[in-house]
Design goal:
Number of helices: 9
Strand content: under 5%
Helix content: over 70%
Shape: globular
Order of helices and strands: HHHHHHHHH
Distance between the termini: 36 Å
Structural class: mainly alpha
Length: 219
Amino acid sequence: MGIFILVRLSVGRLTSTILPALLILGSLPTISLMASVNIRYFVITVLSVALYLQLLAKNRIKDNPADKIALALLSGINFLVFFVWANLIFASLISFSDIVYPTWLMLLITALISFIVAKDTFENTLYLKIKSGELRKNDINVGSLITAIATSEAAWALIFYPFRYRSTAVILFSAFYLVFTSTQFFLTKEEKGRKLAKDIIIVVVAVAIILLTSKWRYY
């Protein structure tokens, strides 16, 4: 509670505390998943730095919504938040029974995390377009909902993926990133087919490497 109050005082708006809160809440169980002490210290350091930079970027954007460095930094950390929770989602799927952690709950959590991360990132990166009237806030909600639905469908498909949770989380993150990027191009009506094609190729290659190198999970 003390940490949450400090975050609230730092970012100002209550809605701006959601992503930092998700990063904090996801950090402890993520650290507990690490078997090596050295890896745990490394993850603690990375997540602590990420939280600091997230709060710093939110403060800079509050003063200057057009700060490109802060926007890029915040978007990257938002994606990190999604990846942290993607690991927890699939680790829980392997660790708990269907009674404790049913599939519908997993898909609901996936959709909520996807929606929150997408909405916050859209609102930050497209703030000037919203302010100028090129986009409406409802467009952001629709885009975030599309991203959430598509990502939860990808998560449902990955339930049948027989590898360890980290590999599955990477694939879900890749799916989320592609859907998010495609939705952003659609909202802004930008002609960036080459960039999207490049992102698709990179993701396909990365997923192929994961499929070829991942070990089967044990039940």
